[in-house]
Write a structure and sequence with these properties.
There is one protein chain. Strands 16-15-14-17-18-20-19 form a seven-stranded mixed beta sheet, with helices on both faces. It has a six-stranded mixed beta sheet with strand order 2-6-5-4-1-3. A five-stranded mixed beta sheet has the order 7-8-9-10-11. It is an alpha/beta fold and about 400 residues long. It has three domains: about 70 residues, Archaeosine Trna-guanine Transglycosylase, Chain: A, domain 4, CATH 2.30.130.10; about 110 residues, Transcription Regulator spoIIAA, CATH 3.30.750.80; about 190 residues, Rossmann fold, CATH 3.40.50. A hairpin with a 2-residue loop joins strand 12 and strand 13. It is built from eleven helices and 20 strands.
Length: about 400
């Protein structure tokens, strides 16, 4: 007598007409209120197939019963089998897209950028021989052993660190015995790891630091600042670990002032400058650290003047409800920053708030500039670095504006 089939049938979903259209256009999320039919309850990380109204294959994705984003789409179009070879090829493709982006002077960059690389809710960053895997969705928790195996085969990390978004840490610990900051490969570092970005050495706090340990996404804007900094006194507001300041120093800045409310961040900036002391351009630059609230300091230090002012705050809108307040805050920040600029100076204003649109951010900055009454020339608007692709609207968080005020 044949044994009964104990495997449940494949999870099948049907979605609204609007969701069908969004999937066909390449959007990688299906929300819970867009699902109009499913054949059974699903578990986190389970593969689900979406069929259209004519019962044709539409997409394949990872199901999450506890998230408003109920399905994270992996593939749409013609049917595909997500077997071991399919996943390996997907990882190889993402790595190959970055193969020509960096030379030997850069060994810190993003290898996998979530949905935009076909790995929804997952990020992989490299810091020399240390790699950091950050999960933003519980769909990867039951698949983590496979993910680690694929990454280990592809890049052979000396160390692979697991970072977990706050919203999945409890489930990860309770059901999978996984914790924030644990080592998946190798042994824990004794402190920050050191990597290179275009020849400049930086620390990355891979176990407990923000994001995966460093703000890799601003690399190209740091390089632009380097080209503008010769002979300048530079203010780096919300400086974190001094990335913009080091590039400015290498570009010939006379002085750099790192302004941040966190003493921990400023200590990291000092260590980063020390790491690069052998570079005569960096060692020749006077580096100062100021611990203060940026809004407060800009408002009261009316005697401070600089040739280059960088305003790169952390996200001012972590949720949609904060969007309107964030737009006002960007306007206020630029309004406070402009008087700190000498005539002929350059303002660099950046936003990493995904809930604030590109139009809203640039509009707030340009309105503050116009209100100042000072004549200016817009130099450049920038977005995502090539190793941080953004292939759908919600992924487009980074925007930056370079403006020179006329003498």
């Amino acid at each position: 007598m044949a044994e009964p089939n104990t495997h449940p049938p494949r999870l099948r979903l049907r979605v609204t007409a609007a969701a069908e259209s969004a999937i066909r256009s390449g959007h990688p999320w299906v929300y819970d209120n867009s699902i109009r039919e499913q054949n059974r309850a699903g578990t986190a990380g389970e593969l689900a197939v979406v069929f259209d109204r004519r019962d044709r294959f539409l997409a394949l994705g990872l199901y999450d019963p506890l998230s408003p984003i109920r399905l994270r789409v992996l593939h749409h179009g013609k049917p595909a089998t997500a077997d071991d070879a399919w996943w390996r090829a997907r990882l190889t493709g993402a790595l190959e897209r970055r193969a020509g982006l960096f030379d030997a002077t850069t060994n810190g960059y993003r290898c996998l950028s979530g949905e935009s690389d076909g790995w929804p809710g997952l990020v992989l960053d490299r810091y020399d021989t240390t790699y950091v895997l950050k999960l933003y969705s519980a769909v990867w928790l039951p698949r983590l052993n496979d993910v680690v195996r694929w990454i280990s085969e592809a890049v052979k990390p000396e160390r692979l660190v697991l970072r977990l978004s706050r919203n999945i840490q409890t489930e990860a610990e309770a059901n999978f015995k996984l914790r924030e900051g644990q080592m998946l490969v190798g042994v824990a570092p004794s402190g920050p790891v050191v990597f290179q970005e275009t020849g400049i050495r930086f620390e990355a706090e891979v176990v407990r630091g923000q994001k995966t340990g460093f703000f890799l996404d601003q690399r190209e804007n740091r390089r632009r600042v380097e080209t503008l900094a010769a002979g300048c006194d530079v203010l780096n507001a919300f400086s974190f670990s001094g990335g913009f300041s080091l590039y400015a120093a290498r570009g010939g800045a006379r002085s750099t002032t790192d302004l941040d409310i966190s003493p921990h961040a400023l200590e990291s900036a000092r260590r980063n400058f020390a790491l690069n002391h052998a570079d005569p351009r960096i060692s020749a630059c006077r580096h100062e650290c100021v611990q203060a609230d940026t809004f407060d300091w800009l408002g009261r230090r009316v005697d401070a003047e600089f040739d280059l002012v960088i305003l790169d705050p952390p996200s001012l809108a972590r949720r949609e409800a904060e969007r309107e307040g964030a737009v006002l805050a960007y306007h206020r920040l630029v309004t406070l920053g402009i008087p700190r600029l000498r005539r002929g100076g350059v303002l660099v204003a950046a936003s990493c708030s995904a809930h604030v649109t590109t139009g809203e951010f640039f509009g707030a900055v340009l309105e503050a500039i116009a209100t100042s009454g000072r004549r200016f020339v817009e130099l450049e608007r920038t977005g995502h670095a090539p190793d941080h692709p953004a292939t759908f609207p919600e992924a487009s968080y980074l925007k930056c504006l370079f403006v020179r005020f006329e003498p």
